[in-house]
């Protein structure tokens, strides 16, 4: 009786499988028809895909200790009349805690009056969510504990508890404001490194190019983690685009939509304006921004470096790459790599404080 029973179950399972397959195929066909129409009628919708700031943790950022964070201070800066950005300061182990009554009192005691040989890292996160996400906390904590640097991270306009709406130029203005604020409050006496991850790497690169033009003496270098060539190439190579990029409309319509939305997030084209050390970090199992992006950026950077030397210009520009093979770090877990900080110390950061 067991065998006939099993035979009766098989047709039922087969029918369910066929129905599910038909539903998935139908949804795919519907999406293939709807997406090009949306991109034609409402091209600026692509900005929601690029920024993904609609994804939020809903966290209370004023109490970093609720995220298991120790010695982290939350504050805000007014970039523009309608834009206030939220910032976390991860205090260096070399900074002694002192009582304070106001934000200004905190700044004076924990930033202004501190040793000028303690460098600063400004961490620019990628798209979606905010500064409270565990991978971003993990990287900032690692940088603080192993380098003993002060680390600042913030949410761009429209992210987390920061006000305003994101645009490419707006995000760069936020980044520049934080850098200028730290440069001014420390009287330009402390080295400032910038670190960008994913979308943040393009923001960091564009900021670094502008700082190089301004010859900012406190600017010490840039690290780009999981960077991309430009945002159009990033969309083309994202694992989700595998479903649509073979279709004839995908390349042209996404390019046009990004252009209309004034989104380019060029990285490679800004390398030629850098006058500082640059380090690329990438895992070979990153399927969000494939490893090939960094390989192409490295090759472009080496060509630019050699050209600079022959023309005797921008001589402080150097480029290196640290690859992570078979580590399971993907797009945002490089902070778990045990050799990350030792490798960076050999290339860009100070060995010891």
TrEMBL record:
Keywords (A to Z) from UniProt: Membrane, Transmembrane, Transmembrane helix
Transmembrane feature ranges: 20-42
GO biological process: monoacylglycerol catabolic process; phosphatidylserine catabolic process
Presence of the UniProt keyword Protein biosynthesis in the record: no
Occurrences of domain AB hydrolase-1 (ranges): 119-260
Gene Ontology terms for molecular function: monoacylglycerol lipase activity; phosphatidylcholine lysophospholipase activity
SUPFAM superfamilies on file: alpha/beta-Hydrolases
GO terms for cellular component: endoplasmic reticulum membrane
Keyword Transmembrane helix: yes
Highest taxon listed in the record's lineage: Eukaryota
Protein name: AB hydrolase-1 domain-containing protein
Organism from which the protein derives: Rotaria sordida
